[in-house]
Design goal:
Helix content: 25-40%
CATH topology of the largest domain: Rossmann fold
Keywords: Lyase, Thiamine pyrophosphate
Largest sheet: 6 strands, parallel
CATH superfamily of the largest domain: Thiamin diphosphate (ThDP)-binding fold, Pyr/PP domains
Number of strands: 22
Strand order of the largest sheet: 12-9-13-14-16-15
Cofactor: thiamine diphosphate
Enzyme class: lyase
Family: Belongs to the XFP family.
Number of helices: 24
Strand content: 5-15%
Shape: elongated
GO molecular function, one term: aldehyde-lyase activity
Structural class: alpha/beta
CATH class of the largest domain: Alpha Beta
Distance between the termini: 77 Å
């Protein structure tokens, strides 16, 4: 360890470095040319449209500079997460000065030419985002949508014992629901096997145009809040740079020594009792060091500093900007070639210790493929379609249990979910691991809790599960999130943001691929016997299907063997968002493992054993997607074949939903020729779908055969029987038979009589469940008997 003394000389150099970062951050906002003001500033040197943020930037530059000192002193492996990432110019400025930016983007060189490109590109057409975006070296968190910084930080340090994630939390961000509950994440950190998170709450007092709540609390109230959440807050407050540099340096040394002491004690004694981790509350003016007043309005220390502190809409503003930029004395900081002077360059860490070059922030560099068992070893023996009944998620649980076992050495796999692992029938994983929990444990009541558990389901927050998982994946590990289908909607926006991140990363050659974000949606819409309407929402499929086609994948396996094949594929994949919808209830099993592998590999197929059109033109195509629609569609074929065997039905099952979209829109999509071969060009199609019918219509809008009739969820539901849920939304077997006959007028009176019979059955069903309270035996006990 390099025991650097906090001398006035060293702090003076740090202040100079900080001035350089502030100068470059402001220059990126404003300057098109003349990046170091080597000639008098003119209007033509300034961007026509100035877009970006300033208020948070100086404080975050201050933090970055001080973290550099800590990294050097402790030879510390550290990443930085910027919660208020809309101040992206701060991160770019710092990575540029330390050299990591130019290594990734050689054209943005460390000279006058590179400086001009650096300034011009910021928040400029053809340039870079104003956020800490994927294009920014060292970033795993864009910070455009607020609330997830601490969750990402904790995800990053799970199973990373030498890593510290410094996490800047904006005081506006701190008001969001996800961030407000993130403070509880310390109850899941193991001081032996995990790294540490250092939250730095940046209190600059204001949001866009309002004060922040935490900044207006008394010191005592704020301190009590954090102590009550299990943190030890250290306060660094002020506006005088000289005083603040010493306070921050001294506080960081105290905090780092505490973190090291906590870890040493735990790792030498094996005592994993939850410690009280330190954190920092940094209070500085918003827009610190920027213009004090513009047009009589207070800027520094007010909400007016949030975005662009001085607009270039008045001639006198040019002088204000000039005076502001010159206040940093760039001539003292950069040499004649436009490079940071050597005595300041030496303050930055070297090599991979630089925040912008840390491999944890480019997690694909550290990614080890999972060791996976052969999913075929977990196959359900299916002598004939529908002859066996199993619970798909229970069978998957055995496979996931063994994924844990095979990767125990690397400890690079976890599963996440909000207190639903048992409910979602993944019980078998508890044969080899526990839930992560670093709070007191009551041995008389608690189940499967341990400080070294690898199942992250002991916090009832979808936001935390998703945020932890994203942080875990972004730093080079693997996992999945199992959720009730309806409540995956809580993290709609988080999943969308991650999909956007991956979309941008796919265009960056230096960003190495990471493990896919796998979302397992179970406890689904079609059976909510004791929860009812609130738990019925398949809309996540609609939401995620609209994201970039090279990122999103949607799978709806109809049985356990297909689920095993699908999950194995998804765990091997990289840079995707995979959504898998699965059943947890007892269901008939349709395919052998050999058939399942073929079916899932193709993603869609004609089930010949359920079709009656072999070698002939079908009268109708009956398609289905999802476990419950598959069950009801097969029951409908069974009825139609018994009652009207002359009808030629082609039975199609879809596992990979994006097969329905044209190939020119999605890489998994069928070509028009392939689609027409399966669905025909003109025969009527009745499609039983797991989700909202409009999604199938959207995916197939440009197909030749527009004679498609989709039956799915129509926002009808309550606490009722499983079959009645299907009846209420008209995807039950009786309604599907009626739908098919309505689209085959050539069968005339015979079809009319069967339609009447089906309507009678629907009345009989309603009467029965209202009298008895369960589904009719002919429904509940129905078995596939075959049509061949």
């Amino acid at each position: 360890m390099n025991h650097m003394e906090i001398t006035d000389e060293y702090l003076g150099k740090m202040d100079a470095y900080w001035r350089a970062t502030n100068y470059l951050a402001a220059a990126q906002l404003y300057l098109l040319e003349n990046p170091l003001l080597r000639e008098p500033l003119k209007k033509e040197h300034i961007k026509k449209k100035i877009v970006g943020h300033w208020g948070t930037v100086p404080g975050q530059n201050f933090i970055y500079v001080h973290l550099n000192r800590v990294i050097n002193k402790y030879d510390q492996d550290m990443i930085l997460i910027s919660g208020p990432g809309h101040g992206g110019n701060f991160f770019v400025a710092n990575t540029y000065l330390e050299g990591s930016y130019s290594e990734v983007y050689p054209n943005v060189s460390r000279d006058m030419d590179g400086l001009q490109k650096l300034c011009k590109q910021f928040s400029f057409p053809g340039g870079i985002s104003s956020h800490v975006a994927p294009e920014t070296p060292g970033s795993i968190h864009e910070g455009g949508e607020l609330g997830y910084s601490i969750a990402h930080a904790f995800g990053a340090v799970f199973d990373n014992p030498e890593l510290i994630a410094a996490c800047v939390v904006g005081d506006g961000e701190a008001e969001t629901g996800p961030l407000a509950t993130s403070w509880q994440s310390n109850k899941f950190l193991n001081p032996v096997s995990d790294g540490a998170v250092l939250p730095i709450l940046h209190l600059n007092g204001f949001k866009i145009s309002n004060p922040t709540i935490l900044s207006r609390l008394s010191h005592e109230e704020l301190e009590a809040f954090f102590k009550g959440n299990g943190w030890k807050p250290y306060f660094v407050e002020g506006s005088d740079p000289k005083e603040m540099h010493r306070k921050m340096a001294e506080t960081l040394d105290v905090v780092m020594d505490e973190i090291k002491a906590i870890q040493k004690n735990a790792r030498t004694t094996g005592d994993t009792t939850r410690p009280v981790w330190p954190m920092i509350v940094l209070r500085t003016p918003k827009g610190w060091t920027g213009p004090k007043f513009v047009d009589g309005n207070k800027i520094e220390g007010s909400f007016q500093a949030h975005q662009v502190p001085v607009m270039m809409d008045k001639p006198e503003h040019l002088d204000i900007l000039k005076e502001w930029l010159e206040s940093y004395h760039a001539e003292e900081l950069f040499d004649e070639n436009g490079r940071l002077i050597p005595e300041l360059e030496e303050l930055a860490p070297k090599g991979d210790r630089r925040i912008g070059a840390n491999p944890h922030a480019n997690g694909g560099k550290l990614l080890h493929d999972l060791r996976l068992p052969d999913f075929r070893d977990y196959a359900i023996d299916v002598p004939a379609p529908g002859s066996v009944e199993k619970q798909d998620m229970i069978e998957l649980g055995g496979y996931i249990r063994d994924v844990f076992k095979l990767n125990d050495e690397h400890k690079n796999f976890r599963i996440f979910g909000p207190d639903e692992t048992m409910s979602n029938r993944l019980n078998k994983v508890f044969e080899v691991t526990n839930r992560d929990w670093n709070n007191p444990i009551d041995k008389d009541t608690d189940q499967f809790l341990a400080s070294d558990g690898r199942v992250m389901d002991s916090m009832l927050s979808e936001h935390m599960c998703e945020g932890w998982l994203e942080g875990y994946l972004l730093t080079g590990r693997h996992g999945f999130f199992a959720s009730y289908e309806a409540f995956i909607r809580i993290i709609d926006s988080m999943a969308a943001q991650h999909a956007k991140w991956l979309k941008v990363c796919n265009g960056l050659s230096w960003r190495q691929p990471i493990a896919s974000l796998n979302l397992l949606l179970t406890s689904n819409v079609w059976q909510q016997d004791h929860n009812g309407f609130t738990h019925q929402d398949p809309g996540f499929l609609d939401h995620i299907s609209n994201k970039k086609a090279d990122v999103v994948r949607l799978y709806l396996p109809p049985d356990a063997n297909c689920l095993l094949s699908t999950m194995d594929h998804c765990l091997k994949s990289k840079n995707y968002v995979n959504a898998i919808v699965a059943s947890k209830h007892p269901r008939p099993q349709w395919l052998t493992m050999e058939q399942a592998v073929k079916h899932c590999t193709q993603g869609i197929g004609i089930w010949d054993w359920a079709s009656t059109d072999t070698g002939e033109e079908p009268d109708i195509v009956l398609a289905c997607c999802g476990d419950t629609p598959t069950l009801e569609a097969l029951a409908a074929v069974d009825i139609l074949h018994r009652e009207m065997p002359e009808v030629k039905v082609r039975f199609v099952n879809v596992v990979d939903l994006m097969k329905m979209e044209p190939k020119n829109k999605h890489p998994h999509g069928l070509s028009d020729v392939e689609y027409d071969t399966i669905f025909t060009k003109d025969k009527p199609i009745v499609f039983a779908f797991h989700g909202y019918p409009t999604l199938i219509h959207e995916l197939t809008y440009t197909r030749t055969n527009r004679n498609i009739h989709v039956y799915g969820y129509h926002e009808e539901g309550t606490i009722t029987t499983p079959f009645d849920m299907r009846v209420q939304n008209k995807i039950d077997r009786f309604d599907l038979v009626i739908a098919m006959l309505n689209n085959m007028p050539q069968f005339g009176n015979k079809g009319a009589f069967l339609i009447q019979k089906m309507r009678d059955k629907l009345v009989e069903h309603k009467t029965y469940i209202h009298d008895i309270g369960v589904d009719m035996p002919e429904v509940a006990e129905w078995k596939w008997t075959g049509v061949k």
